[in-house]
Amino acid sequence: MSIGRTEDDVNSGELLNLKTLAENRAGFARSALFDRVSGLLFESEGELSPDVRALIDQILTGLIKHVEGDVRQKVAVRLSTLKTAPQDLTKLLANDAIEIARPILHHSPVLNDVDLIDIVQTKTTDHRVAIAKRPELGANVSRALAASKEPKVVEALLANMGAVIPRAVFADLVALAKATETIRRPLLSRKDMPKDLAHRMFWFVSAALRHTILERFSIDPQELDTIFAQLLAEKDAETELRTRTKAPPWTTGEVNALIAKVKAGDINGFAQSLGKIIGVDAETAAKIVSDTGGEPLAIACKAVGADRSQFTTIFLQLDYKRFGKARPISHVQNVTKIYDLLPKDKAMAAVSLWNAQGALAA
Length: 362
What we know:
By secondary structure, the chain is mostly helical. It has helices at about 5-10, 15-20, 25-45, 50-65, 70-80, 85-95, 100-105, 115-120, 125-130, 140-145, 150-160, 165-175, 185-190, 195-200, 205-215, 225-235, 250-265, 265-280, 280-290, 295-305, 310-325, 330-340, 345-360. Helix 17 (about 250-265) runs antiparallel to helix 18.
């Protein structure tokens, strides 16, 4: 049949004859018939009436399981970008072995969100990865993919900038990232990652990713009210969260007193005093002081108003009291870069956010 054949020609009775042939149980006849009818579909795209298209879908759907995998694969490739592809046949191929289903799952415009979610929930990891790579993904499909908690699937989802990922899904993925290192960097590479959720990761990521969080997701004091409102709405909480948009009251004497406590080995007293000065609860203060990386301490000291020399003294003294020896100079330099990175107002905003997150978690 030529490409120029008209719809009237297609409707002339040829399809009825093909349908009759479809009832022939001989394998050779069915394979030949499948080739003929699928060719008819591709050659006549845009020229077929809905009834004829439905008949073709019926014939091909009935034959698909009787033809070889390589034939199904070729048909899947051709159907994958066809806007008028038969729906039932497309869904069958999408549920086939991944080698056959992949092009359909990647591209087919015929599959809707319900179809995709069904495949996500019933098929293999490879099927889910293929769906995660579609050029566009709706929020419900992203939610279903994230629910699998499979690193390969989540990584593919996060790498897809055409995927709509709701805030609640980001929150679930942040919780997953605590135990799944491979998804941490992809999460922090998303431009739509909520800032406060990125800071929630600060406590369990590497030093390099802590730098990334502070650079890409730095929080201005003016943003805190909006962020706190969002946190309260999510938790349905009535907790009062204080923001600090102005410098907390501190004096040189107070900073020197902090240094004296560290030198004396009074780590608990240091943590309590630090918490009072920067306005965080005891648990958050202890978390800042006990962090082995030292980056939270650098941010807290910047928020408190300690100068660079005072921060270095506090860090080195605290480090020695905890570990019994000084760590390599390269580590000290890395932590000092964190101190230098944030302006004081953004350091204060980060501390306020940590405090709010701790209060709501409690």
